[in-house]
Amino acid sequence: MIDTQLMALLTSGAFIIIGLFAAIFLDNIIKKIIGIAFIEEGANLFLLTLGYKPGGVVPIFMPGMDAKWFAANSAYPLPQALVLTSIVIGASTLAVMLAIAMVLYKKHGTLSTSEILGDK
Amino acid sequence: MIDLIPLMVIIPIICALLLNILHGKNKTVKYFAIIVAIVVPIIPLLANYGLHYFGGHVPLIENSGLLSSLPSYISQTPIANFHLAITYSFESLQKIFIFFFGIVAFLAVFTSFNEMKRSSGAYGFLMFMGIAAVIAMLLSDDIFHMYIFFEIAALVQVGIVLASNTEDNYEAALKYLILGSIGGPILLIGIGFLLGMVGSVNITDIVFAVKNNLVNPLSSVFLLSFILIFFGWLYSAGLPPFHTIKSSIYSKALPSGGALLQAFSVMVFVSFGIAILRIFSVIPYSKILIIVFSALAMILSITMAITQTDFRRILGFLAVGELGYIGLGFGIGTQLSVTAGLFQALNEIIITALLFIGFGTIYYLTKVSDIRKLGGLIGVYPKTAIMILIGGLAMAGVPPLNVFQSKLMLIQSALKAGIPELAIFMIIMSIVTFMTFTKVFHSLYLKPKPRDLELAEEGIPKSATISIAVLLIISIVLGVLFKFITTPIFNFVGGIL
Asked: Which residue ranges run through the membrane (chain A) (predicted)?
């Protein structure tokens, strides 16, 4: 039987490694930004995985639920709350980076980081 | 008056949002921003010390009604001590730092309105959002909350650079964002490991778990968490390998922006530095690592400052190099050294703001930043030149100014801790800083004025001169009455170590 938590952790690790590779070694700004998005999503998936509970229920307390049963069976909600905030921050950063990329493309006529940044 | 604690963050955020809406209405933006900037340093003086729990959710152990309704594996275990809500902690350190940071922020806002032809609501938004973010970081007892506000502060820094319309500012901003987008998630993963081990992101809870052996501080996961958070701290503070991009960012901002950006960096450095000390000081060699990177920051930054010809880059590198002293104080790890490091941080916020605004006046006058093309400016504005000279001497640690007192404390703490090598190292670095500043000052003010150097007719903005004078007075007062600051900081540090 596949261990869901382990698989999710491995996936997040793969996301981060692929993202790091793209952000460090690829020259095209857009590809770098896509790599950065991979790193951010990998980190978010890692956080979500921490709150995973095998056979657990969604951590929303509904009317009629027994409090003790809920406490014993619900997934840990804190990572989910953190990830929600993290996604918003990540989206803002990506938007700013894409906006800067557009301006730099208009200025330099290329998306090559080495040509745009040079020795700056 | 404990309810005033969250207002230190909420008021600048609301002001930022309103300024954005008011963009285009010049006078309204200007007066509204200045009024709120005056309020920011006043609130910490009125607020009482204490903890503020968002939503009123106190730790379970303080809520007996709720505690009795929970299963025994929660109510009768250490989990009952954990904090349910985001918590702001307001103590003497926060009071001192927010007050002085508030004054620097006010002066930066005040000066910025003379740097631009029209008061920009969007620029005001960025400044106040950054002010709110770094105050929140200093108040927060929640490491994830700190991370979020750090990311906001990083975005604001990029925004301030983009709004400055200086040469190659977009390139520098992109570089900083790319590095930040790698450093940020790495910091987040480190926080994730802590969350996985402890089940909470509250720093007091994490420290409680470590001290009560709920977490093995020598486990590989805890060590990995330290390395990742430490890496994030290096990025956020601009320590090596990020010192070059950090100084580049400072040099691409307007003078008021540079002053504010440096203040942001110091506040971020202090906030995460204290969190790292509290959580990870149990790890062997953690303090040595802090010393190594701080010393590297000093050596690399000052070496690079010597080789530059752009005075804004030189100042940027010197500012990053000065951060190393704070790190050395943290790394030595005694009550005296950490106090000295924190006092140095406070002094650096003031002195680098003075120098950024002071050297900025030369840029207003000449639109030139290459020291080879400048000279003879002492004859044009001698009073400003003398104030900048005193500021530079203060940065280098000349008595009786404020940085002298903090550097002396750092040297004494290194000697008391039995590390005389560090004391000698700090003295050498201070001498090199002094030499670098003297070289720049000579090039700008004392050597003959180049024939082709043209000066702007409008001269130096009065707001800049006033800001420099106020910062200089603060520097002198802190140098003479330093005990009023160091005693409460010393007591605070005793409580966290």
From this structure: 6-30, 82-105
